[in-house]
């Protein structure tokens, strides 16, 4: 059983503690679905997980509540709990949130009422389409375009590395509308997968299974009421959405770390080396201590960022970037240490720590690579001193 003492921290309300207990109990009871890893039927497994998450009511937390609030601590607790058991289940939950995040945060009441209930019910699969072949880290360089035509818009261009690509029913798509140079000329649109002119170009296989695709828009016409916010606000919408969801990527990494630690700690107690449990060896204890420290420090950064956002902070750019950078980079180290403590068993295909070793890698790249997070943090820190750019 993973460490639960962090739930006593003042970042949480009692409703979060009750929530953490509820989702933990659900996860315990739904081991069969959380054991699906997409190894043989990726899309089918994603749909099975989505249904289970919807039936459990957990997807309701991926969209705002009746008061219009998206509780970041609840999102993080959900991802941490799912991530501890299944990278794919964490992914399915996360994409319902990220894929509909711009609608949750910037949609009109009508847009929210039209598109969010299907996401919460697991009836609509959501995706967030920002990256392009020539615009990944450099979002402002994106070239997919949207031009006005009559009372609607016409989209052209290619997006790549789009999670849920090929599976999603609806995409939030960022395109250049030209109100200004670079980041000032982008807008966000909601596009259904059955719109003429939309196509999935290719599915991209990954080292840890997860639906991903390149998609293309060719003279793809959508109605005027499918723009989110005002024309020219796309970059702000994308960044504000990532501000919320970056902490949750960190929480998924934390879940992976906790699982790796639990697996490794149990192993060192059970495994005997040189006539005694491995856990008696001081170098093994040092490894476990390092892992535990990285886990607690990650949790502190994550729940600080989440708490701050839930208190109504308009942006938590610095805190979310720190949480994402630290928790994902350190999870890589924690998982690597777990593999090492398992010896040969740690690299056997399908072993939990081997699976985590593959699962963690992408988290240091998507939603802003680690280097990008460092730049974000440095800019925030320097701006606080009246410098930087
Ligand atoms: C599994 C997965 C899922 C994804 N899901 C989505 C999705 O759902 N929607 C979406 O829009 N995109 C998605 N992406 C795309 C992801 O956001 C991009 O891969 C990421 O932004 C990096 O862009 P890039 O791959 O083009 O790498 P590049 O931009 O070419 O960067 C390559 C590397 O350069 C380094 N780097 C970047 N900037 C700097 C800098 N300023 N200084 C120094 N080094 C730097 C980093 O190490 C980076 O990894 C996903 C990617 C992956 C791998």
TrEMBL record:
Q: Which residues form the Acyl-CoA dehydrogenase/oxidase C-terminal domain?
A: 232-382
Coiled-coil-forming residues are none
Boundaries of every Acyl-CoA dehydrogenase/oxidase N-terminal domain copy: 14-123
State the Gene3D superfamilies in the record: Acyl-CoA dehydrogenase/oxidase, N-terminal domain, Butyryl-CoA Dehydrogenase, subunit A, domain 2, Butyryl-CoA Dehydrogenase, subunit A, domain 3
Q: Where is the Acyl-CoA oxidase/dehydrogenase middle domain?
A: 127-218
Kindly give the SUPFAM superfamilies that the UniProt entry links to this protein: Acyl-CoA dehydrogenase C-terminal domain-like (SSF47203), Acyl-CoA dehydrogenase NM domain-like (SSF56645)
Which InterPro entries did the record assign?
Answer: Acyl-CoA_DH_CS, Acyl-CoA_Oxase/DH_mid-dom, Acyl-CoA_Oxase/DH_mid-dom_sf, AcylCo_DH-like_C, AcylCo_DH/oxidase_C, AcylCoA_DH/ox_N, AcylCoA_DH/ox_N_sf, AcylCoA_DH/oxidase_NM_dom_sf
Keywords from the named record: FAD, Flavoprotein, Oxidoreductase
Q: Name one GO molecular function term.
A: acyl-CoA dehydrogenase activity
Q: Name one Pfam family in it.
A: Acyl-CoA_dh_1
Co-factor(s)? FAD
Q: Which PANTHER family match?
A: ACYL-COA DEHYDROGENASE (PTHR43884), BLR3437 PROTEIN (PTHR43884:SF22)
Q: Name the protein family.
A: Belongs to the acyl-CoA dehydrogenase family.
Kindly provide the name given to this protein in its UniProt entry: Acyl-CoA dehydrogenase
């Amino acid at each position: 059983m993973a460490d639960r003492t962090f739930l006593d921290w003042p970042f949480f309300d009692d409703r979060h503690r009750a929530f953490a207990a509820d989702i933990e109990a659900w996860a315990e009871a739904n081991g069969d679905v959380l054991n699906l890893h997409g190894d043989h039927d990726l899309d089918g497994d994603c749909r099975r997980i989505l249904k289970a998450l919807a039936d459990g009511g957990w997807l309701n937390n991926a969209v705002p509540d009746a008061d219009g609030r998206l509780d970041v601590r609840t999102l993080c607790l959900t991802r941490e709990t799912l991530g501890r058991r299944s990278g794919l289940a964490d992914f399915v939950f996360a994409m319902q949130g990220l894929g509909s995040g711009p609608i949750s945060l910037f949609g009109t009441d009508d847009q929210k009422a039209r598109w969010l209930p299907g996401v919460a019910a697991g009836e609509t699969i959501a995706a967030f389409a920002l990256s392009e072949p020539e615009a990944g880290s450099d979002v402002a360089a994106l070239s997919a375009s949207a031009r006005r035509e009559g009372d609607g818009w016409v989209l052209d261009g290619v997006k790549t590395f789009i999670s849920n690509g090929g599976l999603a029913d609806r995409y939030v798509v960022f395109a250049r509308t030209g109100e200004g140079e670079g980041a000032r000329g982008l807008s966000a649109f909601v596009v259904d997968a059955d719109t003429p002119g939309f196509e999935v170009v290719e599915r991209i296989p990954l080292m840890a299974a997860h639906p991903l695709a390149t998609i293309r828009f060719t003279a793809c016409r959508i109605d005027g009421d499918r723009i989110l916010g005002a024309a020219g606000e796309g970059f702000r919408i994308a960044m504000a959405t990532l501000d919320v969801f970056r902490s949750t990527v960190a929480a998924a990494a934390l879940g992976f770390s906790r699982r790796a630690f639990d697996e490794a700690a149990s192993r060192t107690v059970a495994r005997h080396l040189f006539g005694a449990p491995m856990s008696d060896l001081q170098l093994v204890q040092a490894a476990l201590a390092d892992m535990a420290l990285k886990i607690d420090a990650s949790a502190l950064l994550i729940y600080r960022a989440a708490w701050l956002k839930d208190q109504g902070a308009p942006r938590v750019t610095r805190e979310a970037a720190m949480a994402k950078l630290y928790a994902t980079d350190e999870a890589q180290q924690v998982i690597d240490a777990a593999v090492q403590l398992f010896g040969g068993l740690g690299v056997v295909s399908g072993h939990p720590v081997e699976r985590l070793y593959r699962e963690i890698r992408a988290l240091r790249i998507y939603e802003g690579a680690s280097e990008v997070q460092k730049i974000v943090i440095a800019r925030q820190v320097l701006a606080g001193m009246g410098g930087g750019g």
